[in-house]
Amino acid sequence: MAGVSSSGLATNYIYACTRMRVRRSQLIPREDYLRMLNMSLPEITRFIGETSYRSEIDELGTSFSGINLVEVALSWNLAKEYQNILELVPGELKYFTASYLRRWDIQNVVTILRGKMQGVAPGKIKEVLVPAGRLDRVALDRLLAEDSPERVVEALRGERFYPVLETELPRAMETGSFAHLENELYKGYYARLIADAKEGVKGGNIFLKYIELEIDTRNIQNLFRLRAGHVLEDVRELMISGGSFSVEELQRLSALEDRDEFIDGLKKRVRSVPLLNTLEAIRGKSAIHEIEVALTRVQLDQMERISKRYPFSVLPVIVYLEEKKYEVANLRALARGKEAGLPGERLQGYLVM
Description:
By secondary structure, the chain is mainly α. It is about 70% helix and about 0% strand. Helix 5 (about 65-90) runs antiparallel to helix 18 (about 315-340) and helix 16 (about 275-280) packs antiparallel against helix 17. Mean pLDDT is about 95; it is low at about 1-5.
């Protein structure tokens, strides 16, 4: 059993991974999402208030309403759940789970930087932050109190991603886009995950399987996104190293102008039957959000299959954390879509179910 060094720790691993399966069984099922597609925003809010989000909806209901109530309740619940999981998992599971959760530091910092540049009130920015990484709620509040993106970055001096922020912020401020900065932060994040997996900690080889799968999915999604934006020049600096595709291979695929030839090129390098089938199904899709959702769904399915091969490893933990993340994303998309008056059939294409 990977990562288990004693009978006591083995028991803790079995308990933690069993708890993940129980939690997964409590996630909102597909049929409930289909029901919510036909609900109004107040009805969706009431529905959410009858699920695992009840305590947040009740606690925040006197201070927020409408879309703001949903946004804050979802963020609070996700952060609390991730923190609970981190306390629950033992040994190497905790080590790798903490590494995984550092992605939220990137998301939170980039959200704050964008908000500061656009002049968004700190309270509005705070509504969508998820303090689940190394930067806790107190640290994020300190960043929100800074009066400019430059001051936010300076306040992060000493964090491992500070050098990237310091280097990339001037370009972001000049262009008005944080896309390149965000991409560089995630490249560093995945490099750190790979280093953590290879540090010799038991279970690292299993963690590496997850990292490779996520990097491949992210790179393929980025290639489709770049093609949709007609970006056909050198894309190597936008790709993440460490997956089963080399950066040079991804560049060669990106240079294929014909869409069918591009998809065929991807299929020649893929061994997973579900991903092969998904790529073939994507051939007839043009909406980028539908392509991204299809690739995300197959990634989650592949993660679940791998986790069944390693039932007492970090993978059942990460599968749950990922599915919980997408549950929150689905509920947020439904709430925002209903507020914007979008029809249910259009909203369905944005949901990962």
